[in-house]
């Protein structure tokens, strides 16, 4: 089953980072989330109750990104995946990608970041 719901290119101005300058000045973070969900029921029923409401997922991501600064984007990605997997039982797997568009390192690039995949173990 390869059905997915995705939220792509979410941008947040936040103050996460290991360097003091990052915590003071802040920067733009781009977040992409992909959730593996069986969409066949919603596809047949046309009812929002039969899927994962991406508006609610967006609010969860926004709350984490605008929360108190942390040092590592790895930690942010983990928090986002855990939040989604623990609050949305229809999600079987969550992929989170976080990109720093302008990290404080010299050079030319489109961004640096992390990507994690976490399986939802329905307890």
Automatic annotation (TrEMBL):
Source organism of this protein record: Staphylococcus intermedius NCTC 11048
GO BP term, example: folic acid biosynthetic process
Enzyme's top EC category: lyase
GO MF, one example: dihydroneopterin aldolase activity
Subunit structure: Homooctamer. Four molecules assemble into a ring, and two rings come together to give a cylinder with a hole of at least 13 a diameter.
Pathway annotation from the record: Cofactor biosynthesis; tetrahydrofolate biosynthesis; 2-amino-4-hydroxy-6-hydroxymethyl-7,8-dihydropteridine diphosphate from 7,8-dihydroneopterin triphosphate: step 3/4
The organism's place on the tree of life at top rank: Bacteria
Alphabetic keyword roster: Folate biosynthesis, Lyase
Pfam families xrefs: FolB (PF02152)
Keyword Cytoplasm: no
EC number: 4.1.2.25
Domain spans labelled Dihydroneopterin aldolase/epimerase: 5-118
SUPFAM superfamilies tied to this protein: Tetrahydrobiopterin biosynthesis enzymes-like (SSF55620)
Cited function: Catalyzes the conversion of 7,8-dihydroneopterin to 6-hydroxymethyl-7,8-dihydropterin. Can also catalyze the epimerization of carbon 2' of dihydroneopterin to dihydromonapterin.
GO cellular component: cytoplasm
Family affiliation: Belongs to the DHNA family.
SMART domains associated with the record: FolB
Catalytic activity field: 7,8-dihydroneopterin = 6-hydroxymethyl-7,8-dihydropterin + glycolaldehyde; 7,8-dihydroneopterin = 7,8-dihydromonapterin
Name of the protein described by the UniProt record: 7,8-dihydroneopterin aldolase
